[in-house]
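Re: glutathione structure - here you go.
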Amino acid sequence: MPHTLSYGTESAANKAIGGVPTIHYFDFQSRGRGQVVRLMLIDSGAAYEDVRYTFDEWPEQKRSGPVAEMNPTGNIPVLEMPNGKILTQSYAILRHWSRQLGAYDGKTEDEKYWADAICDIVVDWRTLFIAAFFSDNQKEDYPKHQQGDRNRYINAIETHLKGSDLSRRGPYIIGKEVTYADLVLFQVLHDENMIQGERADLKQYPRLIQLVDAVLARPNIKKFFDSSAYLG
Ligand SMILES: N[C@@H](CCC(=O)N[C@@H](CS)C(=O)NCC(=O)O)C(=O)O
């Protein structure tokens, strides 16, 4: 059986998004697409409930558990809202909540475009990361990914952030205001184990370090990382 956890206290941010969401996702530490969704809730001060599936129980749950009925693609994260609304597709959920919260997606058309563009790069990167990290041949495929695709994406994003008039204002992708895309980028760097410890693999990317540190310094995110709710 999946186990459940809860985080936070119901707040105005919950009201804006329609209540306290129940998130169905893997019991995969504080990682993955499910964690990106949690991260926006954490940052905005919203509470959530977690239903966490172990990797072992997932195949059976996928066949006959509640997710099978809620999401035709059979993927997670899947969210249940108190009014019965089901939300699927992590990036669409982030964009939906950004509009509901009136934050996280920039103000001008140029800012919105730029946040979406950087997010889309990370979408492509994460897909390749997952394929390599969960490959049956992980021992060979993941190091190949780190040297190949991961390098290519990190270099591209660092170059974009240094070259864009918006990003140059820093520390975030569009300047002073955080966007959902910063959370998406932060989380893939976290999941690739690049922001923990000595950060040896991140050293040559000063603009990404600036962004990561700005995200980690956000009060609600800092509180989460300093708490026992953060699972690594
Ligand atoms: N585009 C979807 C992708 C969802 C997805 O592929 N989720 C993975 C976990 S991160 C999954 O469901 N894996 C288990 C499976 O496919 O059975 C999203 O962003 O939500």
